[in-house]
């Protein structure tokens, strides 16, 4: 629970909203672009019992893709709920760089977790199941996730510093400083 040091100052924006939106939207990019548009893989396309080259296998993969999309939709829904909760708490609205930086961090975290768990630990699919040696694509997916986390965090920090600077320089704070 956040505690206000000064009752006249609103609480800082929530970081949870951006992270949850990033987790969900990153999952949507993966599911829509890689699964549906490019058709490089499906959720269980590297499981021998569900080859996507058979009708039964494609049905199982499509069902698994649907369950995956429900999970990513839930992350977006939770991001929306935390955004509304923040507004109801009277928190400051985040700047674009504060919020979008966290969206990129969330997307990167999605890629890292999904890449390690699904590609390496469980081995249920790879970025490119349609190729004979998918390891390089899996590693590139993890590198891309790490770059999203790092770049997103830098962008978020820039936004946080700018918001703090605007808060310090606001007319209300200058009046408060003169009264002290």
Write a short abstract of this structure:
The protein has helices at residues 16-37, 55-88, 96-121, 135-168, 171-179. It has 180 residues and is an all-alpha fold.
Care to describe what's here?
- With 180 residues, this protein is mostly helical.
- It contains five helices and no strands.
- The protein has one domain.
- The chain has helices at residues 16-37, 55-88, 96-121, 135-168, 171-179.
- Helix 1 (16-37) packs antiparallel against helix 2 and helix 1 packs across helix 3.
**What does the radius of gyration come to?**
21 Å
Distance from N terminus to C terminus (CA atoms, Å) equals: 28 Å
Question: Which overall shape is indicated by the principal axes computed on the Cα atoms?
Answer: elongated
Class of secondary structure makeup? mainly alpha
The largest sheet is: none
Strand content: under 5%
H/E element sequence: HHHHH
How many structural domains can be distinguished in the coordinates?
Answer: 1
Considering DSSP H and I runs of 4 or more, what fraction of the residues is helical?
55-70%
> Which regions are unreliable across 5 or more consecutive residues at pLDDT < 50?
1-5
The number of distinct β-strands equals 0
| Annotation field: number of helices | 5
Mean pLDDT: 90
């Amino acid at each position: 629970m956040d505690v206000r040091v000064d009752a006249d100052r609103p609480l800082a924006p929530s970081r949870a909203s951006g992270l949850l939106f990033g987790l969900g939207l990153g999952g949507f990019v993966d599911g829509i672009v890689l699964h549906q548009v490019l058709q490089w893989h499906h959720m269980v396309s590297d499981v021998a019992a569900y080859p996507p080259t058979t009708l039964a296998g494609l049905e199982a993969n499509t069902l698994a893709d649907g369950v995956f999309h429900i999970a990513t939709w839930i992350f977006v829904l939770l991001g929306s709920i935390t955004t509304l909760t923040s507004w109801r708490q009277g928190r400051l609205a985040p700047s674009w760089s504060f919020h979008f930086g966290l969206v990129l961090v969330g997307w990167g975290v999605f890629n890292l977790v999904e890449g390690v768990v699904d590609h390496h630990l469980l081995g249920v699919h790879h970025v490119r199941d349609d190729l004979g040696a998918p390891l390089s694509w899996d590693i590139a997916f993890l590198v891309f996730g790490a770059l999203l986390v790092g770049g997103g965090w830098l962008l978020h920090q820039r936004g946080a510093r700018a918001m703090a600077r605007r808060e310090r320089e606001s007319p209300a704070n200058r009046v408060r400083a003169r009264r002290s």
